[in-house]
What does this fold into?
Amino acid sequence: MDSNQHEALSVWVRELRKRLNVSQDALADVLNVSRGAIASWEGGQRAPWEPSLTRDALRRVGEQVRMPPMPERGPRKVRGPRVTTAHDERFQEFFGTSSR
It folds into this structure.
């Protein structure tokens, strides 16, 4: 991922959090990642792989608040399912509705 892609994702994650009006801790809890992961994405130091459960979860949260499409990142091998019941339950709790 080049620096422009990192910056685009960084801005996207910050904007998502602003639209949700939540802390890094709260967003991390919904996505089942650490607060440090959110901070590193917002700071442009790191980015979740594409495709991954975390990127799928970020996209789904973004869709709930009508965010523009998430900037893409290079591919990698996917292990396991892309969407889990745990993610669905977290979305339902966070938004108070079904995530689908």
User: Anything to note?
Assistant: The two ends are 30 Å apart (CA to CA). The chain has one domain: 3-95. The helical segments are 3-20, 24-31, 35-42, 53-64, 85-95. The CA atoms of residues 7 and 65 lie 21 Å apart.
